[in-house]
Specification:
By secondary structure, this protein is α/β, with parallel strands linked by helices. The protein contains 19 helices and 17 strands. Strands 9, 10, 11, 12, 13, 14, 15, 16 and 17 form a 9-stranded mixed β-sheet that branches. β12, α12 and β13 form a beta-alpha-beta unit. α1 packs across α5, α4 packs antiparallel against α5 and α12 crosses α13. It is globular and about 70 Å long.
Length: about 550
């Protein structure tokens, strides 16, 4: 038995045969030709890569189709091509030029310090590695799986997942990668155990077809496990099956506060696939859909048709349950690359969220029309407005809503306003005037991330100010309590949708102050449910 220890990336246990995939063999004996010939070879490799991706897209589901389409778009990216051609002009061969450009491009994206863009570096590496393989004359291994296996590889790429027969995948072990790699995200959504950052020795091709036992909780990997290890894994896997049964029951269990009123557990999501997964995992509704994903996804655009398609897919994925879509929350630390905007000295206190309606009215009018049309077609939705700080933010925004609604009703595009309009309480001023705001809207959603940041003057992404950032600081809790009381006074709903909703010690305080709806990352929902049951059932 040989044991390795890596980084846990997806919980679970698995025992199966190994299939080794090792791509860490660089191109050998590269002959560098004249720049014009190397450019021609690069252009030909791009065409072949597009053909390969098109074949994969034909057999892919929606999520992977989007990723592979993104990779197709990247092959036509002018900035990337220009960078590669510059390297070729500097006497680099085409393959080496792509390698260097890939590293530089990915480093630039990572330096932006945006989670979404950082995740995209995996897709960029995937598609450009495909081009490099073509230039080096290497053929990517075809994943023709016929029996259950655990994939052992340097890294699992998005295109690999598109080519695999998933019913045969029992787990992943990778020498590289990270917790946030696309393959590990997919593994977690599918309930497939995964371990990353394992010693390179695990990639030895002689390991193929050996039995391996992997522990996605601890990061342990056992090749040719001995009898005792196998017995322990068998026992633990049986216990896991029982735990799965309990988890499925918990998904559908209602939870209650000490006064016997129900506490609703909602999920924060980015797109239709997130929503479908959250509903499947027990979310009672969706408390936040971040519409600014339209700015971050290269496959989406800001046209009216594209927005209607995105919102209707989100609503339908919710399967009739309550859904709240936040209007564009862009500016500050959110990317604005697709808008012409001036760089601000202090963007967190500048033109962000609803304030951009004054400088980008067409953008917001298009979004309003798309939301009204989507709600008219698919059913009632909630729409909340972020970064409200004065009453005029709401009166001006709702005046824009009325203008758009009057126009498209007159044109026969919609028959009704099927939207409940609400405010995100995330500035101290909004909490302090919540009595007045509650008379103007249908609901409040308290964004504790920004409310904490602005109340305590502590940048939430500045680690040096972390000691000041406390979502349950008495000042923040007082503002939350004031907001909850004013919402109750005027008979409107109120929820918490900040990250602190997923922290039970914080959630408990919010519940004690009267909050009855918590919206959080979906992987925290069942844990919070269980904590509520344990805490409040013991008090009754």
């Amino acid at each position: 038995m040989v044991k390795y220890v890596g980084t846990p990336a997806s919980n679970g246990l698995a025992v199966a045969k190994i299939k080794v995939v090792n791509r860490r063999i660089a191109g050998f004996k590269r002959v560098v030709l004249a720049p014009h010939r190397e450019k021609a070879l690069f252009n030909a490799a791009v065409i072949l890569a597009k053909d390969e991706l098109s074949e994969l897209i034909k057999n892919s589901d929606g999520a992977h189709r989007d990723i592979l389409n993104f990779q197709l778009v990247m092959l036509d990216d002018e900035g990337m091509k220009r960078l590669i051609n510059e390297k070729i002009e500097d006497s680099c061969g085409a393959a080496y030029a792509v390698e260097i450009a890939m590293e530089e491009y990915c480093e630039r994206l990572k330096s932006i310090n945006d989670g979404y863009l950082s995740e995209r570096t995996t897709d960029i590496r995937d598609v450009l590695t495909r081009v490099i393989d073509i230039l080096d004359g290497k053929h990517r291994e075809r994943f023709e799986l016929t029996e259950p296996v655990i994939i052992v590889a340097d890294e699992i790429l998005p295109s690999d997942l598109a080519a695999m027969e998933r019913k045969y995948i029992k787990g992943f072990v990778t020498a590289g990668g990270s917790y946030q790699n696309h393959a590990n995200i997919i593994a977690r959504t599918m309930g497939i155990p995964s371990v990353c950052c394992v010693d390179n020795e695990v990639l030895n091709p002689l390991n193929t077809d050996k039995i391996v036992a992997i522990d996605g909780y601890t990061g342990e990997v056992f090749i040719t496990p001995n009898e005792g290890t196998m017995a322990l894994f068998t026992h633990r896997m049986n216990l896991e099956k029982r735990e799965d049964t309990f988890t499925n029951q918990l998904k559908h269990t209602k939870v209650y506060a000490p006064d016997n009123t129900q506490i609703h557990i909602f999920a924060n999501c980015n797109d239709p696939k997130d929503i479908a997964l959250a509903i499947n995992n027990g979310a009672e509704g969706i408390g936040l859909v971040r519409s600014e994903v339209l700015f971050m996804n290269c496959n989406l655009d800001l046209s009216l048709a594209s927005q209607i398609r995105f919102y209707t897919e989100c609503i339908r994925a919710c399967k009739g349950k309550e859904i709240t879509i936040r209007t564009f929350d862009i500016g500050a630390d959110k990317p604005l690359d697709r808008l012409e905007s001036e760089k601000e000295p202090n963007p967190a206190l500048g033109m962000r969220g609803v304030r951009l309606m004054y400088t980008q009215p067409e953008l917001f009018e298009t979004q309003i029309e798309a939301l009204l049309v989507s709600a008219d077609r698919c059913g009632k939705i909630n729409v909340m407005i972020p970064m409200v700080s004065v009453v005029e933010d709401i009166t001006n925004y709702m005046a824009m809503v009325e203008r758009v609604k009057t126009r498209i009703m007159a044109q026969g595009i919609i028959t009704q306003d099927n939207i409940n309009w609400g405010v995100m309480i995330e500035t101290p001023s909004a909490a302090l005037i919540s009595d007045e705001l509650a008379q103007m809207v249908n609901f409040f959603s308290i964004g504790t991330n920004d409310l904490t940041q602005y109340t305590l003057a502590a940048d939430r992404i500045n680690t040096n100010a972390a000691m000041y950032y406390n979502p349950v600081h008495p000042s923040v809790v007082k503002l939350i309590e004031m907001t909850v009381n004013n919402a109750k006074k005027h008979g409107i709903k109120v929820s918490i949708c900040g990250e602190s909703a997923a922290d039970f010690e914080s959630a408990k305080i919010y519940i004690e102050k009267g909050v009855r709806c918590l919206s959080m990352a979906q992987n925290a929902m069942l844990s919070i449910k269980q904590h509520i049951i344990d805490e409040f059932s013991s008090e009754s």
